[in-house]
UniProtKB/TrEMBL annotation:
Domain of life: Eukaryota
Gene: MED7_1
Pfam families: Med7 (PF05983)
Coiled-coil intervals: 114-141, 177-211
Lineage, opening ranks: Eukaryota, Viridiplantae, Streptophyta, Embryophyta, Tracheophyta
GO annotation, biological process: regulation of transcription by RNA polymerase II
Name assigned to this protein: Mediator of RNA polymerase II transcription subunit 7
UniProt KW keywords: Activator, Coiled coil, Nucleus, Transcription, Transcription regulation
Gene Ontology cellular-component terms listed: core mediator complex; mediator complex
InterPro entries on file: Med7/Med21-like, Mediatior_Med7, Mediatior_Med7_sf
Keyword ATP-binding listed: no
């Protein structure tokens, strides 16, 4: 009886292997025929050989005669001015950093143009450290009340980032000044190198003339 069960199991295993071999052979035959495979399903040959890039936009036909007559096609649209929607948000073409109030965020440092950035950044950094310590205590003693501390920490981070973004124009000017100073330094070095090479060439010419004069005598 045990022998018969083992024999039946071997027959079942052989049938499974045979079906797997036939399936693999069928896939190879279809692939050689150009039908292709995608997610286990057979695709027609026309789809397998189609381009993977989308077609060009239809308005390219308006510029078919552009090489012969550049004025035959319509002019490009003017640049967008003001606000415009993009990916569900509203943006502006003006290069102005929006205030925290415009973004719906409470400002923790004083308002006005005369802001001591160094002082305010240090104050916010100290406040952030205190809130992180308080969050650690809350997570140990009252884990269910951590949400408020997380909101306070998020508010501090937003104020820190806004202060840093306010310094970006100054950073850009300082970076530009540094680049210009490096360019001036390189040019001065190049000028000094040219002068040194010129002096060496003049010295070599004088020595050559002296040698030629001595030979002529």
């Amino acid at each position: 009886r045990r022998y018969s069960r083992n024999k039946a199991g071997l027959r079942s295993l052989a049938r499974c292997r045979a079906r797997r071999v036939r399936r693999t052979q069928e896939r190879g035959r279809r692939a050689r025929a150009g039908e292709g495979w995608w997610w286990g399903s057979v695709l027609p040959a026309s789809m397998a050989t189609s381009s993977s890039y989308p077609p060009p936009p239809p308005y390219y036909r308006l510029y078919e005669d552009y090489l012969q007559d550049p004025k035959s096609g319509p002019e490009p649209p003017p640049p967008v001015q003001g606000t415009y929607p993009l990916f569900g948000g509203t943006y502006t073409t003006e290069d102005v950093l929006p205030s925290l109030e415009d973004q719906g965020v409470r400002q923790l440092y004083p308002k006005g143009p005369n802001i001591d950035y160094k002082k305010e950044l240090k104050a916010l950094n100290r406040e952030l450290q205190l809130h992180l310590l308080e969050l650690a205590d809350v997570l140990v003693e009252r884990p269910s009340q951590y949400a408020r501390r997380v909101e306070d920490i998020s508010l501090i981070f937003k104020n820190l980032h806004h202060l840093l973004n306010s310094l970006r124009p100054h950073q850009a000017r300082a970076t530009l000044i540094h680049i210009l100073e490096l360019q001036i330094q390189r040019r001065k070095q190049a000028i000094e190198d040219i002068k040194r090479r010129r002096e060496e060439a003049q010295k070599l010419l004088r020595e050559s003339l002296q040698i030629l004069d001595g030979q002529s005598i």
